User: Fold BTB domain-containing protein from Favolaschia claudopus.
Amino acid sequence: MSNADTPNDPRADGPSQDSAVSLRHQRYYLETITFKVEDCIFKVPRYHFEHSSDIFAQMFTFPSRTDVPCEGQTDENPVVLGGIHTAEFEALLNVLYPLNYPTLLSNEEGPNWNTKEDWISVLKLATRWNFLAARKSAIDRLRASGDIDDIELILLARQYDIADWLRAGYTNLAQRAERISEEEAQKIGWDTAYRLGHMRELGLQDRHSKQTLTSGVRHAGKFVNVVFEAEMKQAEWASARYLSTPTLWPSPNR
Assistant:
């Protein structure tokens, strides 16, 4: 029995294969790109690297030698990505090229198979390579998860230019009941811990007066902008370049 006679064969009743000219589809004729991370070879569609990252888009414009295969076209001559781990790159690819298609369709919130550590990896690489939509998706997922404490929020905010997280982390520490521990102070810096501790003491005094809890939180948020004015201005400037970008997947809170 021929393939064309097989029931439910996707090739059955197809167009004639004798057409003189076949045109490549404008959107769905995708080139691939080969990467090497550590000792692992990846081969994926080039599309998102070319259209979602200006870093890679610029790299693809560099001229190549004519006597050797173009970098990234073969396993023997991949684009080597240094300074990252295989698991980190795989986490980014899970967002750019999700393979569990049925699960994706049944989940309106987008991909949820990445762990907290995976999303931090996505945030790291998306920030480094200017995958702006993937970066925003990682920020939305991590914030909505509730798995990040205030200290980690501050450290990630500093590392990846997230001004809102920095302000939120400082505000939360300045108005929480517990003092900042020595271990926490070592992580965020002693000067920062001292200033937050002073803000906390002032906040406690306000709470024992006529301040309500809600007004105290608002007061702490405004005070952060004053006490950490230089740092907050720098953080706002650094994070501004990542704004006004649509997400790859809807926010869990929408």
